[in-house]
Amino acid sequence: MMVAMLxxxxxxxxxxxLKAAPRRPNVLLLTADDLNYDSLDILGGIAKxxxxxxxxxxxxxxxxxxxxVTVAVCQPSRSTLMTGRYPIHHGAEGFSPIRDGVPTLTxxxxxxxxxxxxxxxxxxxxxxxxxxxxxxxxxxDLGRGREPAKYAAAAKSFFAAAKxxxxxxxxxxxxxDPHRPFAGSEQERQQYGRTTDFTRLVKPEEVTIPGFLPxxxxxxxxxxxxxTSVHRCDQxxxxxxxxxxxxxxxxxxxxxxLSDNGMALPFAKTNCYLQSTHTPWMxxxxxxxxxxxVERKHFISGIDFTPTVxxxxxxxxxxxxxxxxxLPLLAGKKQLGREHVFTYFHETSAHxxxxxxxxxxxxxxxxxxxWVDGKIRFKNESQAGLSWKAMAADGxxxxxxxxxxxxxxxxxxxxxDPHGKQNLIQSEPAVRARLRGVLRQHxxxxxxxxxxxFTGP
Length: 457
Prior knowledge:
Blueprint: H1 2-20, E1 26-32, H2 52-59, E2 62-64, E3 67-68, H3 74-83, H4 87-90, H5 105-111, E4 115-119, E5 135-137, H6 148-165, E6 169-174, H7 186-192, H8 217-247, E7 253-259, H9 274-277, E8 281-284, E9 293-295, E10 300-301, H10 305-312, H11 327-330, E11 341-347, E12 353-360, E13 364-368, H12 386-394, H13 399-405, E14 409-413, H14 429-445
Parallel strand pairs: 1-6, 1-7, 2-9, 3-10, 4-5, 4-6
Antiparallel strand pairs: 2-8, 7-8, 11-12, 12-13, 13-14
Helix pairs in contact: 6-8, 8-12
C-alpha cells in the first residue's frame, strides 16, 4: 500500500512538472503586399501619419535596415520565406507550386505540435496541403484582404481556437494592401465593380514622390491611391496586434513583419533594384529582443526566415536550406558572412521570363540581366497603371525606354544614388569586376542553371 501511494505521488509530481514546463513561443508573421520599404512614417513616409501601428511595432523590438526579400514578386517571395530556399531550389520561380519533396516550415511546426493558420494570399503558397494549415481564410473571407475589421474577427477566432487546442500557434497573416488595385482607383472599380472602403483618403498634394519615379500629375494621383492603401494596411496590422494582446498571448509571441516586395510601380516590384527587394523587417519578442533597436550592419534575407524561426523555437533546422538563422543578431551579437545579399527574378504573373541576378554590398548593387538583347521589352503589372502611362507619354529622356530594354549589366552606388538612376557599369570597372566575382562564386555555389550564360571578364 505504501509503495502504491509513493508511486502515485511520484506520478502526480511528474505530471505537475510536465504541466508547469514552459510552452514553446507562438509565432506571428505579418506581411504587407507590395509595400515599399520607405513608405512607413519612420522610414521617410510617402505621406504623413500613415503607419502609426507599424511605427509602434518597430519601436517595440528590432528593425533591420539591410533586410531584403529574395525575389520581388508574390509567390516566389513567400515560397522562399516558408522553405528557406532560393527559388531555383524550391521550384516556385514564378506562379507555380514548390517541388515535391521540399519541406516547409509549417510542416515541421505541425509535427512539433503547432496550430497553423493563414489569412489571405493562400494560393501563393502551393500546393496548399503541403503547408499544413489548421485554419485557412481566403482573400474573399477578409473583404478581398482589405478589411481590418474582418482580420480582427479572424484573429480573435484563431487565437481562441489555438487556446482550445492547447497548442502554441503559427499564424501567417497577410494583408492584400497595398497591392493593386489601389484604394479608390478606377482600376479597382473595373476589377471589383466598386471601390473598397477606407477611412482616410490621401490627396495627391500630400504625397512625397520616391526618387525612382518622376513628379508627374498622374504619378502623384496613383501614389495617393497607393498611400491610401498603405494606411489601410497599417490598420489591418494594428487590428491583428490588438487581438493578440486581448488573447493574453502577446508576451509569449515572436512577431515579425515584412513586405513581400516593393510597390507595384516601375523600377520597383518584379526587379532587382534596391527598392525592389528592400523590406521593412521588424521583430518583436518580449523578454528576448530589446525594444527600440535598429540593426544597420548585417544583411538578412527571405531565405533566413525559416531557419531563424526554427532556431528561436529550439527545433532542428530543415535539410537543404540556403538561408541561416539570424537569431544571434536579435541578441545584439555579430555574424560573419552577412556582408552581401543576393536577389533574383525569374517570371512575372503573366508567365513572362526575365531572368535577373543581383548582389548588393551595402553601397553598390550589381544586376545581371541575361534576358537583354536590345529587342525584348520588359513587361510587368507595374505598367498597368497611371504612372507608367504618364512616364511613357512624357518620354523622360529615355527613362521609359531603359525600363523596357535595359542593359545586360547594371551597377549603382546606392549611397550616392539610392534610387538607381545612374548606371556606372562603364565608369566603375573595378567595382564591376569585384561584384561580378562575388556573384559568379554565388552562382557556382548554388549550382544556378544560369551560370553557363555568365561569361566575360
